[in-house]
Structures are given as C-alpha cells and as structure tokens.
Specification:
The chain is an alpha/beta fold. The protein contains 15 helices and 16 strands. About 50% of the residues are buried.
C-alpha cells in the first residue's frame, strides 16, 4: 500500500480523473499546481490561491535553500507554517534551477556544485542533501528526486548520460528518503526526445520503486509538436496506478493535450508571469490588456469563474491598471490566470468523467487557435 492512495475514478481513452489522497487534503486530478517559487505564489495571498480551487502548490528547493535558507524555514516551523499554506506542497529537487540559473555548475557522480545566482557563494547539492532540504527542513508532502535535466536539443549520448545519472541519483534519493508515513517521493523520467532512452529510464525508475512518477526534460524549448510526440509514448511507460506529473508545463493547450495522453499533474510559472506582463488567459486564447481595444470594454474577463479578479472587474479597469503600471493590475491578472487554470483542470475532470474528452479537446483547440490581441 502506497503512503498516498491514488484512486482513479474514470478514464476516457488515455485520460484519467481521480484523487491523490494526502494527510493535508485531497488532490483532484488532473491537477494544476501554482508555483510558489520563494514561499509565495507571486502577487497573491494564500487565501486568494485557495479561492481559485488549487489543491496543491509547488515550492522551489533551489531558491529556498539560498534564501532564506532551508534551515531557517525549519526553525520557523516548516514551509507550510512559514507561508500559511495548510494544503499539500510539492517541492522540486533544485536540479533544474541549478542548471538553468547558476553561472557555474559542475555535475559529477557525487553531486552538482554551483555558484549562487544571488551572491556567487558556492554550494554542493547531492541527492541526499536535496532530500534533506525537501523532506526534513522544508517539510514538503511530495518530494522529488534529484535529477539532471539536459537542455534541448540534446545529442543522444548526452541525453543518455544524463538519464543514467538521474537514475542512479534516483536510487540514492530513495535510500535517503527511506520509508515515511506522511510524505512521498516521486522519481523523474528523463531521456530527452529519444523513445528508447525514455523506456530505459522508466524501467530503471520502476525497479527502484517510487510513490509517483514525473516526466522531466520537456518544455525546455522543443516546441508543442515535439512535446506531444514524446507524450504519445512516455506516460504509458510509467505505472498506471500511480500519479504521472509533467514538470514545468505549461500553456493551456499543452495541458489539454497532455491530459489526453494520460498525464495527471502539472506546474508552470506561466499564469503569474503572464499576469505580471498584462496578459490574461481565456477560453479563446490569451489576450493583452495593454491593447487599446479594451479601454472602454466594461465586461469582465470571465463571469463564470468565481474569483473576483475574473468576474467583478472590467477589462477597461484592468487595461487602465496595466497602462498606469499599478501593482493591482499585476495582482488581479495573476489571480485571474491561476483561477482560469483551475477552471480548465476542473473542466477536464468533468469531461473525462462524462466521457466527452475528445469533443472537449477538439473544441478547446479550435478556440485557442483563434487570432488574439
């Protein structure tokens, strides 16, 4: 019996809807996890995030270990208490940010050594240290193994090397994690866009044994079509009775297509990053509130979404806030975008349960492909 039971309530083709049960609450799948990089979902309070319907958020190990430090978060009661979020938290391992943000990162069998992007100080991150930070100091509910994510495009030999190192680090992460009553560990499938490497990665992960499985190494520049080609086979390589998490994805159309291929969980900074730059996501694609055509548009972004940012404020007001560079504009658009992503996953859950996933997928793709402003 796994620590967190995963109950699949319905399937429609490869798509599934269900519940991952945790001591801090149920996670309804498909699930979108707002990203709380530095113990905050940017521009929003935890109550605003909860009101959108989010069951779980993501915290970033790399950022928190550097500032305010994982040890300080532990002394202050752990990440949940520190940020006042009492629902589940998934933390990434820190590996992706080490590779993408550090100006100096050296990967060896034992560890990755890197320089902080904040002050240049040197740090060493091993699989064991990553587990200690996530599970023991931050106190996250879902812990990720340390892995190496290669950039795209990747040569086959380089992708294979990183995948096999990630598999060995997965074994070390599992040994360091041990057996816990109220936390789980996810392994990460790697292999870039090479099917045989993804298969080998999956076999190695399954042999080690994890509570859930992530698909890593996508949304790194390969584009929507190439990502979908990998997702045509990668999810099915992972155990059907455990959650499948596509890391760092993504745009709404990416989420819909990934769900259709059997993925259950997602995270991305896109909703809040878009909101900070005047962009709102809608059922008809993204719109730019900087555009003059919204200057006297007194309709809300979406009257059917309960979040006040979606239903109570006019596009004209949001246009004014964005043009005036008012902080409230960033808050309201970030709030709406998170609410929209939650509405999207709720709609996907309903479509799967009612056996109309194909129709939902076709209609959504058609609406998202319309010209937008």
């Amino acid at each position: 019996m796994m620590t967190f039971p995963f109950e699949i309530a319905a399937t429609d083709g490869a798509a599934r809807t269900g519940v991952l049960k945790t001591p801090r609450g149920d996670i309804r799948t498909p699930a979108f996890m707002p990203v709380g990089t530095a113990a905050t979902v940017k521009a929003l309070t935890v109550d605003q995030v909860k009101e959108t319907g989010a069951d779980i958020i993501l915290g970033n190990t790399y950022h928190l270990m550097l500032r305010p430090t994982a040890e300080r978060v532990k002394r202050l009661g752990g990440l949940h208490k520190f940020m006042r979020w009492d629902k589940p938290i998934l933390t990434d391992s820190g590996g992706f940010q080490v590779m993408s943000l550090s100006n100096i990162a050296k990967v060896k069998e034992e560890a990755v050594t890197f320089a902080s992007h904040i002050d240049g100080s040197k740090h060493v991150l091993t699989p064991e240290r990553s587990i200690e930070i996530q599970a023991d100091l931050l106190g996250s509910d879902i812990v990720m193994q340390l892995d190496e994510c290669v950039s795209w495009p990747a040569e086959e030999d380089r992708a294979a090397e990183a995948m096999r190192l990630s598999a060995r680090w997965g074994q070390r992460s599992k040994a360091a994690f041990g057996t816990r009553d109220s936390q789980v560990l996810f392994g990460i499938q790697q292999g870039s866009t090479f099917e045989h490497l993804r298969r080998e990665s999956s076999e190695r992960l399954i042999e080690t044994g994890f509570d859930g499985y992530a698909i890593g190494g996508l949304a790194v520049g390969e584009g929507h079509a190439a990502m979908c080609e990998v997702l045509d086979y990668a999810p099915a390589m992972l155990p059907a009775d455990r959650p499948r998490y596509l890391m760092g994805v993504g745009k709404p159309i990416d989420i819909v297509e990934a769900v259709a291929r059997g993925v259950d969980m997602f995270d991305c900074v896109l909703p809040t990053r878009s909101g900070r730059h005047g962009q709102a996501w809608t059922w008809d694609g993204p719109i730019n509130l900087k555009n003059a055509r919204f200057a006297e548009d007194d309709t809300p972004l979406d009257p059917d979404i309960a979040a006040p940012a979606s239903s109570l404020y006019s596009k004209a007001y949001l246009h004014h806030l964005v043009k005036a560079d008012e902080i409230l504009g960033q808050v309201l658009l970030s709030w709406h975008n998170i609410a929209f992503f939650q509405a999207l996953t709720a709609a996907l859950r309903a479509a799967i349960a009612e056996g109309r996933m194909d129709a939902f997928r076709r209609d959504f793709a058609a609406r998202q492909s319309k010209p937008t402003s």
